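To whoever is on call:

I kicked off a structure prediction for a single chain this morning and the downstream step that reads the tokens threw a length-mismatch warning. I double-checked the sequence; it's 364 residues and nothing unusual in it as far as I can see. Pasting both halves so you can look.
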Amino acid sequence: MNKHLQAYAHIPLRQLSNRVWRTYEGGALIDRWKKSDLEVDGQMPEQWIMSTITARGNGRPENEGLSVIETNDGNFPLKELINSDPELYLGKELAQKYGTTGVLIKMLDSMERLTIQVHPDKKYAKSILNSEFGKTESWYVLNTREIDGEKPVVYMGFKEHVTKDIWKSHFETQNIEGMLDCLHKIEVKAGDAFMIYGGVPHAIGAGCFLMEVQEPTDYTMRVEKTTPAGLKIGPELIHQGVGEDVMLDCFHYDTYALEDALDAWKITPEVLDSSDAFTLKTLFNKKHTDCFGLNELSLDGNFTIKGNACFYVAVIYSGEGVITCNGVDYEYTQGDELFISAAIPEITFQSKMASKILLCYPPS
């Protein structure tokens, strides 16, 4: 074990910017969140947070998607730090079960609609992709914008008339409007939260800035061979190498009325605790999934988080202040992404400016 690298488990770890190329354009609202002088939409519309996995795609940099931690002694890949002592960084139970974080966190900003897609559930991932993880995910809408006068929407779940034969026919003929008409179209606003379980068809519309907490894979099955902006998508990003027929088996062909779809997947945040100084809400928890968790801390004062023998990630959506950890103060500000190791017994957030802090948790 590397004792030098183990020392970093006892302080909050801040990651460097980790933008990732995708088949769609966006990213200006990530720039705004990061307080960049430029707010530019382009082909890097996602910020991956505390990632130990690489992004999939031919011709991309070898380590794209892997998070790098900034320290006073230089920069280190998060994966390298964790591998130096998984139990110290992750917690004993998580380290023994997975040996990795078990979760991937993203900030995602769409200038255009994403392609219609599905992610594998655990059964499909294990049997077809030889992966312990599928890609059940969650969306927490943080901000929106109108693009070309269109209100932001998401698409999810098959309508009641859809069958596998209908879906396959639309795919084979590339009837995009037909496929979109098979899905429920839902207008969204800041504060909306959704679970997207493996097997559920979906697409994020233009104008959505959201946090996505998910299982730690980049497996996406797409049914559009050309993006809405006209980018041709190669076979490896359509079916991940399994072939089109097997790809179509990734979809769950359950159908829903709109009311039932919203009841199944739209989540209402619940207040866990509050005072004059803070409000702590839970968004995604064991009631929804055992794959990850997400809480939101609204802070105007002090709040102490006790360690629970497992790491977590704090993403500063807004505000600034001080974190006290093991008797040392560390500044935080909007746009920071912080890895809090299992070795840390507690930390206290003290806001200097009213803050919104998103607390992301690994599998329970």
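Update from on-call: the warning came from a stale cache, not from the record. Cleared it. Sanity check on the structure: The chain has a mean pLDDT of 96.
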